[in-house]
Design a protein that fits this description.
Structural class: alpha/beta
CATH architecture of one domain: 3-Layer(aba) Sandwich
Number of helices: 14
Number of strands: 11
CATH class of one domain: Alpha Beta
CATH topology of one domain: Rossmann fold
Helix content: 40-55%
Length: 337
């Protein structure tokens, strides 16, 4: 179902004029598309993602205004990976919107093992009004979305972390004011977080420089798609080897852990491969004087980031973490109302 929303067009165009965001859409183009699921940023047009960010800002500024929007609605929160921010932010978010959550651990549900994903989807669609999944393979959330008639939200997969990226871009918008004039340097593993940042940079028209060791680059198809779209939005995607080159004149320095969940047996090898990719004072001096440091957390001080950086006045990691609540509330409102 396609919805044309003139008011949203005006709101986004107005924001663009004020903050420098280039909106490459004709006035009579379709602006809002009715989406059932939120699995990856690549699935949503830039205008819809920007509308989510503006909604998140509104929610953060006046949470009471939205406190009963999802009254009585239930959200199943499936956590097959350990979680602090994802679980808390979704459970707090749905509660603050008037709904409630039901936590399902891997021991309780064991997707695809104890019960087929399809059967889980068909059961939950009759009992709750939305599903969040934090799991391993992206195919699991895609299968859940295929078979469930209710919204499915990706809380993290090995391929993408869209809710994290939305909180990240909300934080960049708050601290830097726009996207078109911002350079983001992501230094580290070309993982799920990197993929979502890449999709976001292409959608929002930002400059993203990703520096990884050989063999740890982002997925080539992700990069190809994003670079093609960045041409239309005024964005720029760079895949580099040299972290110093990525950090040069950066407005934002961003990193993630070198060893993600499920890769623990690679820990020693990864430490060696990522030597020289730590975000430390030397790297930070290459960025702009007013740079901000971001990390999706949890952080390993002394590995991917020096304590002197993450604990400095430049660090906004806890503002970034808080914004998970606001960004996800915007997603919940869009999908569950």
């Amino acid at each position: 179902m396609i919805i044309y929303c003139e008011l949203t067009q005006i709101k986004i165009e107005s924001y663009g004029k004020q903050a420098g965001f280039t909106v490459n859409y004709k006035f009579l183009q379709v602006m809002l598309m009715k989406h059932k699921d939120f699995l990856a940023l690549r699935d949503w047009p830039a205008a819809d993602l920007m509308d989510l960010l503006l909604t998140a800002r509104s929610i953060k500024a006046d949470p009471a205004k939205y406190s009963r929007q999802l009254e009585g609605k239930a959200l199943a929160v499936i956590m097959e990976k350990p979680s602090l921010r994802t679980r808390v932010s979704f459970e707090v978010g749905i509660r603050q919107l008037g709904g409630f959550s039901i936590h399902l651990s891997s021991q309780e549900i064991s997707l695809g093992k104890r019960e087929p994903v399809r059967d889980v989807a068909k059961n939950l669609e009759r009992m709750v009004q939305g599903i969040v999944i934090r799991t391993f393979g992206h195919n699991i959330v895609e299968e859940m979305a295929k078979h469930a008639s209710i919204p499915v939200i990706n809380g993290l997969t090995d391929f993408a972390h869209p809710c994290q990226a939305m909180a990240d871009y909300l934080t960049i918008l708050e601290t830097k004011g726009d996207f078109n004039s911002v350079k983001i340097a992501y230094i580290g593993d070309g993982n799920n977080v990197a993929h979502s940042l890449i999709f976001g940079a292409a959608r929002f028209g930002a400059h993203l420089a990703v520096a990884t060791p050989a063999g740890y680059e982002p997925d080539a198809e992700v990069v190809r798609q994003a670079m093609a779209e960045a041409v239309e939005t005024g964005g720029r995607i760079e895949i580099l080897r040299d972290p110093a080159e990525a950090a040069a004149a950066a407005d934002v320095l961003y990193t993630d852990v070198w060893t993600s969940m499920g890769q623990e047996d690679e820990n020693e090898k990864r430490r060696g491969d990522f030597a020289g990719y730590q975000v430390n004072d030397e790297i930070a001096r290459l960025a702009k004087p007013d740079y901000v440091f971001m990390h999706c957390l949890p952080a390993h001080r002394g590995e991917e980031v020096a304590a002197s950086v993450i604990d400095s006045d430049h660090s906004i990691v806890f503002q970034q973490a808080e914004n998970r609540v606001h960004a996800q509330k915007a997603v919940l409102l869009r999908l569950m109302t």
